[in-house]
Amino acid sequence: MTVAMFGFGFLLVPLYDVFCDLTGFGGRTNSEAATVAEAPDLSREIRVEFITTVNEYAQFEFAADADSMTVNPGKMYYATFTAKNLAAGEKVAQAVPSVAPTTAAEYFTKIECFCFESQTFVADEERAMPLQFIVNPELPDYVDTITLSYTFFDTARVAANTEK
Q: How many other C-beta atoms can be found within 10 angstroms of the C-beta atom of residue 25?
């Protein structure tokens, strides 16, 4: 019974990831390849808002270079975020994204994102981090605003807390 409970606990994270990928639950974006529409929908405008937070234990400054932007579905866009290591030594950080409303998550595709990998910063390093994305023209008509939220974590601190 103990072994079965341990095995179930061990499998919860991968099962949750699969569930979120299939349903878009948790604001995860789809993982399918994105294509730029032959003719973007220039008659429709979507507001994409950027919200950034830093985990309370991370010694970083982290912000979007613009609070929001107006986009046309089917067209490729670029945004930039800036992060700075405030610690005296090297730090490794990871940004965790979320998309709201959750129905928009499957229509918002990140082509290039700093959130795909951990970022290593030397002491006092400041870096611009790119995001390249596209909003699928099939986004439901009732969605006129998409909020992309990132939380920046110190991965060493998170790893230390999970080992306890």
A: 12
pTM for the whole thing?
0.73
Pull the structure tokens for residue 22: 């299939």
Q: Are 51 and 27 in contact (CB under 8 A)?
A: no
Taken in order 29, 32, 36, 40, is the CA torsion positive or negative?
negative
Tokens of 58: 């991370």
Contacts for 37 with CB less than 8 Å, ≥ 6 apart: 73, 74, 75, 137
- Beta sheet of 76-85, edge-to-edge order: 60-64, 76-85, 126-135, 108-113
Res. 22: pLDDT tops 60: no
Q: Is the dihedral of CA 92, 98, 99, 105 positive or negative?
A: positive
Token digits of residue 94? 């990871």
Tell me the per-residue pLDDT of 51-90, one tens digit each, with 9 for 90 and over.
999 988 889 999 999 999 999 999 999 999 999 999 999 9
